[in-house]
What we know:
Elements: H1 12-24, E1 30-31, H2 38-41, E2 52-55, E3 59-60, H3 68-84, E4 88-89, H4 92-101, H5 112-121, E5 126-135, E6 138-147, E7 152-153, E8 157-162, H6 166-181, H7 189-194, H8 201-212, H9 216-229, H10 234-246, H11 250-257, H12 267-280, H13 284-297, H14 301-313, H15 319-328, H16 333-346, H17 349-362, H18 367-381, H19 383-388, H20 421-440, H21 444-460, H22 464-477, H23 482-494, H24 498-511, H25 515-527, H26 531-544, H27 549-560
Parallel strand pairs: 2-4, 2-5, 3-5
Antiparallel strand pairs: 1-8, 5-6, 6-7, 6-8
Helix pairs in contact: 1-20, 3-6, 3-8, 8-9, 8-10, 9-10, 10-11, 10-12, 11-12, 12-13, 13-14, 14-15, 15-16, 16-17, 17-18, 21-22, 21-23, 22-23, 23-24, 23-25, 24-25, 25-26, 25-27, 26-27
Amino acid sequence: xxxxxxxxxxxxxxxxxxxxxAFAQQPAPTxxxxxxxxxxxxxxxxxxxxxxxxxxxxxxxxxxxxxxWIGEAFPEIFNRRLAxxxxxxxxxxxxxxxxxxxxxxxxxxxxxASAIRLAQTLDADYVVFGYYTSTGTxxxxxxxxxxxxxxxxxxxxxxxxDLTHLLDTLNSLAWQVTRQLDPTxxxxxxxxxxxxxxxxxxxxENYVRGLSENSMDERIRHLREAVRLSPRFYPAWGALGKAxxxxxxxxxxxxxxxxxxxDDPNALEADFYRGLxxxxxxxxxxxxxxxxxxxxxxxxxxxVNNQGVAAARRGKDAAALFQQAIAADPKxxxxxxxLALALNRRGDLAGAVREIDLAVKLRPRDTEAASLAATLxxxxxxxxxxxxxxxxxxxxxxxxxxxxxxxxxxxxxRIKRTYNEASFRQAAFEMExxxxxxxxxxxxxxxxxxxxxEGTQLxxxxxxxxxxxxxxxxxxxxxxxxxAHAGLAQVRERSSDPDAARQEALKSLQLQPxxxxxxxxxxxxxxxxxxxxxxxxxxxxxxxxxxxxNALGMKQALAQRGQQLP
Length: 566
């Protein structure tokens, strides 16, 4: 049975195991600005990064039931943006579970008192809530932030825009919330808006409706339509894959979850359920590989355990993996049960008895564990019986044609079927803090270089909001970083702010000649049909790096438009 958070405890053993990885890498709406003095009245300062936030669905005050879905859209956008800004939003799954635990309906609209109770149940530091009204085709939204610890309510934040610009509205309001939580937050509002520039509104509506539908068939229908309309909207692919998984369509679940790239923010969760899908169809090698992808990046105990179970199904010795899971979570009876099986299969009867006794102690009513304990104790007392039953074979839970495994003559290792997203998010945040502490010890120029490198990697993955955050941090460390200004120029260009992009590129070039800034200026000139000027920028870029692929590509593009380099 799933246990209800509080989410605060961190799996420190998991963090220590993962710590080496942290060192290895790591038309626009009309928006009302915060009122003068809002920063002083903000419920928190920059130290709130890492705080847990509960974003509630906004209340529909339009009187139009057809717009109910918009209420659920707010947490979906806010959670993604606040996570990118360094906070820890509580997921929809945990919010729904808490409502169920408290005996409240899923469409419950809480009062301030019940919102506080819900937040305390989830151990949240802040609650974001609000409502929306409409005037014709104009949507008016209002949000507020409640500081649970201080029981202090922040100033109202509002936006107003045409319904066709709903995504811009949601992202603009998310930026205002972020700025109220952290007045020092430097990422531009336009970057928030640009983060969903490729997402179609009808695809997003289908995605939200797909999350909210009670009928599994309707849920899948909406999510399939979402990915058809916006094939690069990966949260919809993840939700569709999980819906197939819940519907026990494991082959479709595995293929659907495979659409997420390995550097997607949700890739770890996707590969967990993808691994389970492979496992349930008897594809143990693929299952082991999927779980291994997760465990090498952040070794949550359930992931490491499942990697071990998949390996055991292939006849491999998985004792080390089960021991690693126990080190992270020593109170889980299943991990001790699995280790007992692995040690017994290895011939370590004493170790197997020790582990199965621990499993029974942790879960006294586990009849299967008690039976295995009795068998192992008998073997320990009777060496002849121990030889007769030296190995306990394994077989897949759901045998398929050609699947690996033998007929079972004993209990099987236990696989974990749920992914503890809360533990993952907290552990990932702790690893980020380890990396931040390491960087803070570096000289300013080196710190800026490291942050710029990380920002460039994020930008190349399409995560422009996260990239700008790194570039801004680099400039805070070293304002003379030419590379950070060039990276920021790329972000401004991608977020459709050409004037700011040009300013940043020129600042970068004043500090030091570099290819990135020259190519940003070349792109901007080409968009403005200033081909001669663009050719000059490309020429200077090629003088710096004659083999630069992007510069050579732009040279070819200019030639196709009849413009040669000087």
